[in-house]
Write a structure and sequence with these properties.
The structure holds two protein chains of two kinds.
Chain A (H helix, E strand, L loop, with lengths): L1 H18 L7 H8 L15 H5 L9 H4 L2 H9 L25 H12 L17 H10 L7 E4 L2 E4 L9 H4 L2 H9 L1 H4 L14 H11 L4
Antiparallel strand pairs in A: 1-2
Helix pairs in contact in A: 2-6, 5-6, 7-11, 9-11
Chain B lengths: L1 H22 L3 H8 L1 H4 L24 H4 L4 H10 L19 H15 L5
Helix pairs in contact in B: 2-6
The chains are: A mainly alpha, B mainly alpha.
Chain lengths: 217, 120
């Protein structure tokens, strides 16, 4: 009888483990406890009006696994550095640099959880980061991204302040996500202060500028 | 019975009207969200993004002499299709896929308040 009970218990435990999601146990619980005050992870996008967007304290993360590179995310959660020069949703206040730090263990667990949140709109493994004449031309002239985003030129900072910085994008962002974000803006962020270039520029232009952005050191 | 129908219709009409106004875009909110980072909250063309890399400064929307040279249709066009549509800088991006027709109309009226001028 005791043997039967033990066997059933082990079997049940194995069943639970097999049914568990791919991310590490605990990452979702840590996220729920510490992060949901500013971020949401249950997509699709919820914002319908400017007021909805302005009510958010931080970016939505329901497609974080498609957007970020895992090593960067794990390191950033332990030692957050400003990504936006300005406070989220503000064009007057500086970024207060007050993002909480996680321990190495918690950061690893939360990273595993977030990297499991992917969007089917992002086809992984298609684009490689790289500079091209076309990408550079679009970035600098055709649709000047530097109007709102900081970017590096030989170690110097250039560009505007209202958008997230593109410095270090080569380590932070997945080029396939950058392309998808440009091509299908409304899927990821239906209300945002960045123009929707999907209907304006051909896919090859968006791909080349996404690859260029994803090459920034 | 007819009084009941009239009252119900009026109540329904008021409710729909209230719902409609709640959905209507507030031009100041639209301007502050999409335009102020370059044109400035006060419209003077010195928003937070303006820096030494800008090939040209954003239009000072309070400049009544310059703004009077533009018709309302010009403003609608440049908001929707961006600066290059009127041979101006691509730093003014196309918002046509982002903004609704009502939001563009609201912006045109709001911008005219900055310059206190009419278009040509």
């Amino acid at each position: 009888m005791r043997l039967l009970a033990a066997t059933v218990s082990i079997g049940a435990a194995l069943l639970v483990m097999a049914a568990a999601p791919s991310y590490a146990a605990g990452g979702d619980a840590i996220f729920k406890k510490s992060c949901t005050g500013c971020h949401y992870t249950d997509g699709p996008a919820k914002e319908k009006t400017i007021a909805d967007q302005l009510a958010k304290k931080g970016p939505e993360l329901w497609y974080a696994g498609s957007k970020f590179q895992k090593p960067w995310l794990a390191a950033w959660l332990q030692n957050p550095k400003p990504i936006r020069p300005l406070k989220y949703n503000s064009i007057t206040e500086r970024n207060p640099l007050d993002h909480p730090k996680l321990s190495a263990g918690d950061a690893a667990a939360v990273t595993d959880f977030l990297m499991g949140l992917t969007s089917p709109e992002v086809k992984a493994g298609v684009l490689k980061p790289g500079e091209s004449v076309q990408g550079k031309n679009i970035f600098a002239k055709k649709a000047p991204c530097g109007g709102c985003h900081e970017y590096p030129v030989k170690g110097e900072l250039h560009g505007g302040k209202s958008g997230p910085s593109l410095v270090g994008a080569s380590k932070r962002l997945n080029p396939d996500w950058v392309y998808a974000y440009l091509a299908k803006t409304k899927v990821f962020k239906p209300v945002r202060d960045m123009p929707d270039f999907g209907p304006v520029l051909p896919s090859r232009d968006l791909m080349s500028v996404a690859a260029y952005v994803a090459s920034f050191e | 019975m007819s009084r009941f129908v009239i009252t119900t219709t009026m109540v329904l009409g008021l409710a729909l009207s209230a719902a409609g106004s709640a959905q209507a875009a507030d031009p100041k909110q639209v301007y502050d969200f999409y335009c102020a980072q370059c044109h400035g909250p006060d419209g003077k063309g010195r928003g937070i993004n303006v820096n030494k890399d800008f090939a040209t400064d954003p239009r000072n929307l309070t400049d009544s002499t310059e703004m009077a040279k533009r018709s309302d249709d010009d403003l609608r066009g440049v908001i929707k299709d961006g600066g290059p549509s009127i041979s101006k800088s691509a730093l003014m991006p196309p918002w046509g896929s982002t903004l609704t027709t009502d939001e563009v109309e609201g912006l045109v009226k709001y911008i005219r308040k900055f310059c206190d001028c009419k278009g040509k």
